[in-house]
User: What shape does this take?
Amino acid sequence: MEQIRVDIEWYDHNFGACLGDNVPGAVALTAKTYDELMKEIPETLRFHVEGMIADGDDVPAWLRDGEYEFDYHLDTAALIRSCEQYASLAAISRASGVNERQLSHYANGIKKPRPQQRKRIVEGLHEIGRKLIAVV
Assistant: This one.
């Protein structure tokens, strides 16, 4: 099964996504919410493939037959924004040890974290998830 890389970013109050280089043509889309974007990604790709077929473009068999899966990569702002309905910046700060104000800068795209700082944020989100799952 072919993997299609999906790069997701947060910019100017919208989520944006671009599909990987193994998809012919340029496919980019935006949505106001993360859930809306996740719904739109497969629909947009299907529309793109249908258009390519109608235009007589060369479409790889795996893409035409739907034999692919998405591999999502979120930038730090998109990651924090996608989780904000489940965890506040204060909760993420407590779980990750990253200053809440700094998290706000990352969430708004004002600053970009170093890789080790991003790792702390991801681990903090995982910790929140583990605690939520443990609730009986």
Observations:
- The beta strands are 2-11, 14-19, 28-31, 68-74.
- The mean pLDDT is 96.
- The domain at 2-74 is CATH 3.30.160 (Double Stranded RNA Binding Domain).
- The chain has six helices and four strands.
